[in-house]
Specification:
Elements (H helix, E strand, L loop, with lengths): L21 H10 L3 E4 L6 H11 L4 E5 L5 H5 L1 E4 L6 E4 L10 E5 L6 H13 L1 E2 L2 E2 L5 E6 L20 H4 L4 E4 L8 H8 L13 H19 L2 H16 L6 H17 L6 H11 L11 H16 L2 H11 L3 H11 L3 H14 L2 H17 L6 H15 L7 H4 L8 H11 L3 H16 L7 H21 L6
Parallel strand pairs: 1-8, 1-9, 2-5, 5-8
Antiparallel strand pairs: 3-4, 6-7
Helix pairs in contact: 1-7, 1-9, 7-9, 8-9, 8-11, 9-10, 10-11, 11-12, 12-14, 13-20, 14-16, 15-16, 15-20, 18-19
Amino acid sequence: MENLAAESCLKKIGVYGYEQVEPIILAALVTEDPLLLIGKAGTGKTYLLNSLSEVLGFEHRHYNASLINFDELVGFPYPNDDFTGIRYLQTPATVWQAESVLVDEISRCKPEHQNRLFSLIHERRIQGISIPLVRYRWAAMNPCNADQGAGDFYEGSLPLDQALADRFAFVIHVPDWDVLCESDQCLISDPRGEGVRSEEDGAIAERVEAAKSCYQKLLKVFPRAFRDYAMTCANLLNGANIRLSPRRVRQLSKNLLAVTAVNGGEIDERLFLLTLTATIPHAAWGQEPDESVVRSVHRSAWEASMAHGREKWLNAFLLERKLSKRVCKLLADCPDADTGTLAVTRSLASLALEEQAAFAFALYPVSLEMEGLVGKEGINDLGKIASGILAVVGELSWQERRVGQPMDHPELSRVSKTLANLSGKRRERASQLFYHLLTNHITLQNPDAYEEEFNQCISVIRSWLKAQGSPQG
């Protein structure tokens, strides 16, 4: 497919410095999903959206949410001729005939109006009545109070309701002066460009139509990599306490398709990161996620969804957060012993100390018994940790072992309570593991949960050995 991302369309309508986010803006035109711009005062948010409606020839409405009277939006109600219902007296300002709607200063909107605007943004309805002509729903806001940086103060700019913010498919941070290149700064500072009518001559409409055609082709086949990337991002972000709703995960897949369509169907890692960033809505309610976390999540998701062969399996293995699932995957579908070794060495390099101990203690015996599961190097790495744990035998009391700590140490008390609820081999294994952790001064926040996860690893291994016909099963 032809690459569509050669030249900036927005510069042709006098919008400068938006090249980095332009693919997202064009993608919103492709899908016709709601778009929210967040930026400081004077960064061109309103100008951009009003200019787009002008060059695309939309019947456009621009409302200031901080000032709007709702009757101005829907018109004045009056009874129909037989007094059985209500009609609205339309004016040039009412929304009924609009094709594009811009709700400016949406973060300054009164709560009752914000609730009414919810249905307009979400489902193209007002007062329960469909507005079939509306195609584009846009909004703009300053950073809200919970998310303002040093030196910023936008009094009255409040966090959006999370349900409303989640309805915006794209949430874009627009560029400020300090990130613009010198040539864009020169163009912006030239007063001769103010008020000059655009002469872009249909380039944006042509590009959007071409991207829509590409989008429909991509949607029909829906490449698995897009789904895998979106699902991996959701799992990792949720694990980092940056929640994406199920609806948001589907929206991420859709957004990836649209941005790729804008790029002529070519998959681009930079655009995937850009799309992920613009799909996370948290800045709209003042909880901007850590950029380094988002970049790390993107990188892991990109590698997991785009890799092939051994690397694809390894990425999927390492993305498993639960040790028992990681053990299950190693036993069930590891391609070969060399890959098993890589899985072991990379796990031990990335896991916390207490997780390393549980992982090695569970896997070392089975890796010795079942030839071909893990290579020699992997077995040696597991043995370095597990051998010290396996050396602990019997049921010596904690007082007899002393473990080099005062007997009233809270760590001893917590693990003793966990052991008191266990019996048989399970208790013996847990006793060995806890003794190793205590002697190495490794602290457990929740011994019960830790032991439960370790026991699940053992259960997975037992079931697998039984399926293999091993007497150890």
